[in-house]
Amino acid sequence: MNRKTIRWATWVAVLVASPALSMPAVTADTQDVFARLADRIDEERARADQERAKADQARAEQDRARAEQDRARAEQDRAERAYERGRDSIEREQWARAVEQFANVISDRAPRADAALYWRSYAFDKLNRQTDALTSLAELMKSFPMSRWLNDAKALELQIRQRAGQPVSPDQQADDDLKLLAIQGLQHSNPEQAVPQLEKLLQGSASPRLKERALFVLAQSGSQRAQDVMARIARGGANPDLQDKAIQYLGVNGNAANRQLLADIYQSSTDVNVKRRVLRAFMVSGDRARVLAAAQTEKSNDLRGEAVRQLGVMGAREELWQLYQKEQSPDVKIQIIRGMGVSGDAAHLIEITNTETNPELLREAIRQMGVAGAGRTGDALPALYARMKDPAVKTAAIDALFIQNNADALVALARKETDPTMKRRIVEKLSLMNAPAARNYMLELLEK
Questions:
Q1: Residue 47: which domain range?
Q2: Average pLDDT by stretches of 10, the chain with 448 residues
Q3: pTM of whole model > 0.70?
Q4: Is 39 part of a structural domain of the chain?
Q5: How many structural domains comprise the chain?
Q6: What is the SS3 assignment for the chain?
Q7: Residue 59 belongs to a domain
Q8: Domain end (from 36, 69, 102)
């Protein structure tokens, strides 16, 4: 018996077994109909199985891609932290530790590997390991021929070669201070002569601390040449660390000319880190209009998120609310909600908890109600807890009250709560709080 006949016979058996059906005589035509019907069912099943397999494969590929992105982001964050630790060691003149920390960044070929090579060379030089310093500089020049650290590296190489065979003290801080004091004195007596000295120091191999202080002195000068030097460095005419400082100083001295220069840098740069620094400088200078423009028009979610964070610091409540209603990205919306928390915008946070259907955004809004302070949301959070059913949302309300150190409200919730799990969560928070209401309630529980 072939496969088609088996399927036909199965269908006949089903129909015969059904008391509600009247079984007609089985003819050749009837057999053919049943066979075609069986074929059609098999085809539909096969098609459905194929679609499910495709969907499973697509989900698996998405999971793999997401995992790869998370791994890359984690590695980048780890390398960035290692770099910052190395810079801290340079500032503290812990040269041996700096060498070890920068080596971790270099081995990973992280985005700042060229900077790490430079600072490792600098630390080697301070340790009187000139051969190692020159080797590290050669690796920088060979591996990163387009690096913006090359000028600094060449200046350091020249300095090391000029001192070849001579002992080098790792502690030059006293000399650096004397140099800077002389330049500051010259700045007051003859500013036009001081600027070239500052520019020369910035282009040389001085310590990062001395360069940053020299840049600060330069930022105080009102001369056109000083402003031109600051503009050149802020546009990327020096290493990235100095560029960051120049942008920061332009924001601190946020006159109209500096604001326009920052806007030009933002528009011309393709470096997300530079744009992020400019947005922070806009915030320091009080340039709310340009920060808002970035939040409205920037295509990058990261930069829109940075802009809305700065708007929160600036207290731009209505602007943030308008952005929230238009924004499509959940990630950016979370940043807007956090900006509302920083700005203390309790009214709009409460409105979000009344209208938002996205669970993640709802929980974030509740947490930020805690950041906004008990004076603004202390009464709204217990009412929100009472009407919400989702345990995750109720937990967010508990966390928000804990952030506020609102022990009175938590004790009141604990007394009313009948769900053992939720009550335990409230009590856990109260056990961590150093407030009279919390301590009294703990004693009350122990007496039961």
A1: 3-69
A2: 52 51 56 68 75 71 65 69 89 92 78 90 92 92 90 82 50 52 63 78 81 86 88 92 94 92 95 95 95 94 93 94 94 94 93 92 93 87 92 93 93 93 93 91 86
A3: no
A4: yes
A5: 2
A6: CCHHHHHHHHHHHHHHHCCCCCCCCCCHHHHHHHHHHHHHHHHHHHHHHHHHHHHHHHHHHHHHHHHHHHHHHHHHHHHHHHHHHHHHHHHCCCHHHHHHHHHHHHHCCCCCHHHHHHHHHHHHHHCCCHHHHHHHHHHHHHHCCCCCCHHHHHHHHHHHHHCCCCCCCCCCHHHHHHHHHHHHHHHHHCHHHHHHHHHHHHHCCCCHHHHHHHHHHHHHCCCHHHHHHHHHHHCCCCCHHHHHHHHHHHHHCCCHHHHHHHHHHHHHCCCHHHHHHHHHHHHHHCCHHHHHHHHHHCCCHHHHHHHHHHHHHCCCHHHHHHHHHHCCCHHHHHHHHHHHHHHCCHHHHHHHHHHCCCHHHHHHHHHHHHHHCHHHHCCHHHHHHHHCCCHHHHHHHHHHHHHCCCHHHHHHHHHHCCCHHHHHHHHHHHHCCCCHHHHHHHHHHHHC
A7: yes
A8: 69
